[in-house]
Write a structure and sequence with these properties.
Helix content: under 10%
Largest sheet: 15 strands, mixed
Strand content: over 45%
Oligomer: single chain
Order of helices and strands: EEEEEHHEEEEEEHEEEE
Length: about 260
């Protein structure tokens, strides 16, 4: 049974809140022989995303996608989630006490995401890109990169699913970039300028609390804080290796000539 072309215009707005508007324009286009392509343009909270996906077979979920986002503002996204989720948006502590993590037996899918700018308060990351794949065994992000004012982040993330819970692994490296005579426009208000760093974190658990308590690894960052003068900053930390608790085993922070 061959698919036909479908065009949809979808909108959603929470009662009495014009800032909650979400709009999506979706076009499903059948391929000449078999399969389809699906394009979606989504706008919400002054942000937009374009998604291209599809499958070489009819009547099956998309197995590949490419997503482009011009700007992602974390504060706007949190506010939008709060409008639709209400009190449940702030129930993180209850989630930690949930009896078990959900199984991650997901449809087979490979995707690529590019984000021109990610903004969180005054801190900004640009040219963020990552590839991901999902399947019965979990989620894998083999390649992730993002640029800061004077550093380029490269990393990998995996979440493997099993009857014992999730096994999480994260590696990241921040390498210094050659600074210009002044910060590029997106970073004009950035207070923290990170130039070098690394992270190695892993753990396994069957609940959110169990997974959090099982995390182990090392984190290091160095750069400077922009104030009246540039203040050199370096941080090194090691997650507690004792089972059953989440804490920092060691943390060392240097600010200019001082140490905390």
């Amino acid at each position: 049974l061959r698919l036909a072309q479908v065009r949809l215009q979808l909108t959603a707005t929470a009662p009495g809140n014009v800032d909650s508007a979400i709009a999506a324009a979706i076009v499903l286009q059948p391929a000449e022989q078999s399969g389809y392509s699906l394009a979606a343009d989504i706008t919400a909270a002054g942000m937009s995303a374009a998604v291209a996906s599809g499958n070489s077979r009819n009547w099956e979920l998309p197995d590949q996608s490419s997503t482009s986002i011009k700007q992602l503002d974390i504060a706007r996204l949190q506010a939008l989630a709060g409008i639709y989720l209400g009190e449940s948006a702030g129930e993180g502590s209850k989630a930690l006490q949930a009896p078990a993590l959900p199984r991650l037996s997901l449809p087979v899918h490979e995707g690529r995401v590019s984000i021109g700018e990610i903004r969180w308060q005054d801190e900004v990351g640009t040219d963020t890109r990552f590839d991901f794949s999902t399947g019965p065994a979990g989620v894998n992000v083999p390649s992730l990169s993002s640029s800061g004012p004077e550093g380029r982040l490269q990393g990998q993330l995996s979440i493997a699913d099993s009857a014992a819970g999730w096994q999480v692994g994260l590696t990241a490296e921040l390498q210094a970039a050659t600074p210009g005579t002044r910060l590029a426009a997106p970073f004009a208000d950035s207070d923290w300028i990170w130039r070098q760093g690394s992270a190695r974190i892993s753990g396994q658990g069957g609940t959110w609390e169990g997974l959090l308590n099982a995390l182990q690894g090392d984190i290091a960052l160095s750069g400077f804080h922009r104030g009246a003068v540039k203040t050199p900053v370096s941080i090194t930390a090691r997650l507690d290796t004792q089972p059953g608790q989440f804490a920092l085993e060691t943390i060392d922070m240097e600010l200019a000539d001082g140490r905390v």
